[in-house]
Predict the 3D structure of the following.
Amino acid sequence: MPKRVTNPSARNVTDANHDKRDYLFESADGAGTPMKIVKCVPPDAPRLFFRALNLEDIGHLQVIFSDPLAMRHYPATKSIAETREWIERSMTSYERHGHGLWAVCLRETGEFLGQCGLIHQELRANPDKEIGYSFQRRFWGRGYATEAARAVKEAALTIFGFPYVVSFIAPDNEPSIKVARRIGMELEEILPPEANKWNRTVHVYSQTIRDPNLAASGL
Ligand SMILES: CC(C)(COP(=O)(O)OP(=O)(O)OC[C@H]1O[C@@H](n2cnc3c(N)ncnc32)[C@H](O)[C@@H]1OP(=O)(O)O)[C@@H](O)C(=O)NCCC(=O)NCCS
């Protein structure tokens, strides 16, 4: 598993709203050879930008996690302590995998809308990279989740080198299924409750991503 190492030449780019960092990872051989620089967040989307989640987002995420409607496909709403743990797990994922769920903000105002990103999931025989998303309810119905998920999908290939992504979705989570379908995912597999950690039927939407440059050239 790649491990972040100190790199004096790594850029730290920060402006008023953005927290975009490049990280240098050790090669998998463990010899400490620099492997590649991974840009930690996807590039801006037309209306959105991504940044790493941090503990100052507890209030932002709490708006989603305390909303019974937003959480109806999850086991329960989350307390403030659970929201803090959620963010800490995201921060650990940045360190461990180079990616995780990121904050999605409005370019125009910097406002926090929700979270979207790439989650390392060990649910099936081989690990998956899941595109996950949840947004504050007042920002639903404006296409932000689809725009963010599309940007994350493109980053999965172009930044992180993952040609195959999934979304694990409850069969009756219609808005989420629509987002997955809009970005090109198709239903691949149905996991019965006994075959996953959530003990619920899970629909696996997936897509093998084509290189956007090849797609543009018609190849
Ligand atoms: C899943 C979730 C993010 C989807 O949110 P959403 O608002 O339905 O999705 P989008 O932001 O992509 O918005 C799409 C809608 O905006 C509409 N829209 C309005 N203006 C638009 C614009 N400028 N561009 C694109 N779409 C626009 C679309 O027509 C679409 O409407 P429709 O669903 O009636 O067809 C949201 O329901 C959520 O946060 N749920 C709780 C968490 C959750 O369940 N996450 C998924 C776990 S698997």
About this structure: Residues 70, 73, 133-135, 140-146, 169, 173, 175-176, 178-179 surround coenzyme A (CB under 6 Å). The longest strand covers residues 112-121. The longest helix spans residues 80-97. The two ends are 33 Å apart (CA to CA).
